[in-house]
DNA sequence: CGGTATCCATGTTGATACTG
DNA sequence: CAGTATCAACATGGATACCG
């Protein structure tokens, strides 16, 4: 179990933290990619396969988004020495930590839809 | 106390709910405006005053964002019959429900910054 | 005061073609 | 297969001027 950390943050730091979170959760594709990977944990998820299954994404965007997810330690990239080469992507343990956050967004969003209808 | 509601949602509905949440939390200004209003509950928060205090926002954007917040029932707009007319904005009770959600974004963001540094 | 209208700079995304 | 390069389209936001 993790040690609970007492945090103090200024208003500006909080806004920066929110920006950081939204940079990952707020874009058009990152969450879709991560949700796909998370629902296909036991499979080999190659670049092509992800592109087929994440509806509408271009190679350019998929490449860019996967690179950013990797830099943020949310996703691993593994080059398989097949012929031709394939590359495998998977969520990291740490990456799974985004899903509880998205749950709160889902809950608020569903409730909000009820509220304003 | 509210009745807990058991929700079932498809993947697409969940993504739509997240989009709804992010439309409000994810933009550049809405959260700053709401945080400002929430920290100045006992004051008259006129258009001009908000524009002065929310750093860098233009009248165009402030007008647009406030209108969207009002439509989403997060903020009230009250025209005061002073001369000249002033308009007063305030968080609604319901609007306060965004702050627990932002807290989870702050927590994840702060933790993430530690993680990747 | 509380906005709206207009025009413009910028960044983000898509389409297509191409490479190792 | 797994990308990159290039160009075009579009959305977002800012600056300025103006109105009731």
Q: What is the multimeric organization of the chains shown?
A: homodimer
- What is the CATH top level name of chain A? Mainly Alpha
Named at the architecture level, the CATH assignment of chain A is: Orthogonal Bundle
Sheet with most strands of chain A? 2 strands, antiparallel
Number of helices of chain A: 5
**Termini separation of chain A:** 42 Å
Describe the model.
The structure is a homodimer of 117-residue chains. Chain A is mainly α and 117 residues long. Chain A has one domain: Winged helix-like DNA-binding domain superfamily/Winged helix DNA-binding domain (Arc Repressor Mutant, subunit A), CATH 1.10.10. Chain A contains five helices and two strands; from the N terminus they run H-H-H-H-E-E-H. Chain A has helices at 11-25, 30-39, 47-53, 59-71, 98-116, and strands spanning 75-80, 86-91. The longest helix of chain A is centred in the C-terminal third of the chain and has 19 residues, at 98-116. The first copy, chain A, is globular. The termini of chain A are far apart. In chain A, 27% of the residues are buried. Chain B binds a DNA duplex (20 and 20 nucleotides) through residues 28, 46-48, 51, 56, 58-63, 79, 82-87.
In short:
By secondary structure, the first copy, chain A, is mainly alpha-helical.
Tag the structure with descriptive keywords.
two-stranded antiparallel ribbon; 2 strands; Arc Repressor Mutant, subunit A; 5 helices; homodimer; 117 residues; DNA-binding; mainly alpha
């Amino acid at each position: 179990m993790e040690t609970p950390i007492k945090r103090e943050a200024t208003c500006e730091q909080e806004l920066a933290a929110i920006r950081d979170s939204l940079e990952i959760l707020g874009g058009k594709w990152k969450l879709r990619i991560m949700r796909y990977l998370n629902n296909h944990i036991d499979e080999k998820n190659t670049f092509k396969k992800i592109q087929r299954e994440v509806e509408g994404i271009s190679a350019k965007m998929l490449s860019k988004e996967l690179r950013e997810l990797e830099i943020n330690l949310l996703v691993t990239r593994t080059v398989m020495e097949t012929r031709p080469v394939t590359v495998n992507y998977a969520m990291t343990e740490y990456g799974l930590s985004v899903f509880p956050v998205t749950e709160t967004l889902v809950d608020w969003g569903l409730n909000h839809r009820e509220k304003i209808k």
